């Protein structure tokens, strides 16, 4: 059953001694707004974590496969849709549309975020009902640079270079970038109208909420340090069209710093919302507070 309500949400998460989203064009430095110093995390980065969580927890479920995944060949999966008997039956009318419907039915991330599938045998394009913004840190962040070494080598030639007159082995030098602490804020939007075109339903929605709350717990790496979801605030409208402007609702979630010292933990901030200002026809669900 497709959605019958519009949603907006605020996701708060933090990083401690890690790099939440390195920029490959800048030597993997943490992404930072050059004018304000605020940290940035792309929407693509968060979608990747959601995809990974769904693939991890929904393995074996035909309807929750992931289209955009590591080492996948997209054209092969698009071509697969044209080989389905159900698609061949409908293909007498519109083969591309029939393939698009099959892809939506079988791939969670297509139903959720949409996809361009006009390559290969062509399964059209899908505009997903769930859209995310870039995440932005509450306060400016500073990237720390750390020198690191690697003692192990990959070739005999490299090993010879590391041997000094004293016989000591000197490791290969490298660099690592981290943010001491940053609290990030991401906004999300869910369209009931677009859900009808992809088949995104209430069950898919619950899986999305679960992913947002738990995805960091299953995405650990040395480079990302400690990352944790800290708040998920969902505004639910009692209609498909919506009962209030999204911007006005999102602004109700206020995050303030408790003192002037550099923030180093989540308790250095206070999250508040004046629920008396929530318009009629909208309810706030604090899924993680």
From TrEMBL:
One of its GO terms (biological process) is maintenance of CRISPR repeat elements. Coiled coil: none annotated. InterPro entries: Cas7_Csh2/Csh2, CRISPR-assoc_prot_Cas7/Csd2. NCBIfam families: cas_Csd2, cas_CT1132. This is Type I-C CRISPR-associated protein Cas7/Csd2. The lineage of its organism: Bacteria, Pseudomonadati, Pseudomonadota, Gammaproteobacteria, Thiotrichales. The gene is cas7c.
